[in-house]
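Researcher: Can you fold this with fe (ii) ion in place?
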Amino acid sequence: MYTQGLDQKGQANVSEIESPEQLAAFQARIDAEEKIEAKDWMPAAYRRTLIRQISQHAHSEIIGMQPEGNWLTRAPSLQRKAILLAKVQDEAGHGLYLYSAAETLGVSRDEMVQGLLDGKAKYSSIFNYPTLNWADIGAIGWLVDGAAIMNQIPLCRCSYGPYARAMIRVCKEESFHQRQGFDIMHKLCNGTDDQKAMAQDALNRWWWPSLMMFGPGDADSKHSAQSMAWKIKRFSNDELRQKFVDVTVPQAEFLGLRVPDDALVLDEESGHYRFGEIDWQEFHDVLAGNGPCNAQRMERRRSAHDDNAWVRDAARAYADKQSAKAVA
Amino acid sequence: MSKDRAEWPLYEVFIRSKSGLSHRHAGSVHAADDQMALDNARDTYTRRMEGVSLWVVRSDRIIASDPTETSAFFEPAEDKIYRHPTFYDVPEGVENL
Ligand SMILES: [Fe+2]
Ligand SMILES: [Fe+2]
């Protein structure tokens, strides 16, 4: 998810000639639901689209550790700390699975990481919001991981084999993330009035940014049609957003919380919830780097990279020394 | 800055999920050396008891068949349908065959 179709200028300038026959044969494989594997022939644009999407997804998992990492030492009990630590560690794992999947397309992890550090690569808008109190950790697990699951389950059937397989691992782990978040919310909602108010406040702040996670509306989504034809995407942004609203509103009702949307109403006929207009200006502002925490997230990521350079160097020096010994 | 240093090599990871089953490809990790590859593979791919045994092998040491030659490479097996038991008619009345 974190696959919002965030755009970046296509840089690959491939001079390879793609014949109409090759393209047709490729599309026929896709239409027959065959999986495309790393070494198979694929159109340059398919490769480029996947590299962009998978690397953005990986960056999002990595940056996504920061808002929750903020609460690792402050979680209210030892058990909550252990759970949150496991969850954050999973997100690191997700980033690694995804970098590996992208690497099969011929881009190195270092290149992708450098793209992030240089500010050229994007990551999901959602991680540029602050986690102000403990209830935010509940809201993130419940809503943000919940939205991620909605987006990621269809990606398990993505036409590109290595991406699909990575998503299967990720999805298995995400449901723990969502449940631990809901559990935090549930406890708060059954606590004191102040605790319940915390939960409501967190929902108020995270609801709309969570809906934005699905990316621009279908009318404004430039990559959607091609990605659907290639079966990288199986559902449009708006379809996924609708599904998310439909499953989440009843959960909020169960918690006794109010979804912060005056326009929200159940359309009895279709069984779908109708919801209010998303503030797309806010979405674009956050993507453009002007969200509440963009600068802080990038600063933290860069300093982690630089501060730990000596560890990478030392490991490399040790490996060199060992292999020199082995040769001698 | 370690910017100019070559990237740590890539290793492919194989997991035996329980004894009695074969190792199966799980994904890959980067590591500076073999031991670190095992440690990283454990942390990345077996956080939930997914395995009882791990193999890691440098990706550049794997010898793979060429996907552009797939049909030529596997073709010799294609017309030997007599290798399958279903090729043979079992006469009516014969059992345990
Ligand atoms: Fe994740
Ligand atoms: Fe997650």
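Model: Folded with fe (ii) ion in place. Chain A touches chain B at residues 37, 39-41, 86, 89-90, 93, 96-97, 100-101, 103, 108-110, 165-166, 169, 173, 306, 309, 312-313, 315-316, 318-319, 322-323 (CB under 8 Å).
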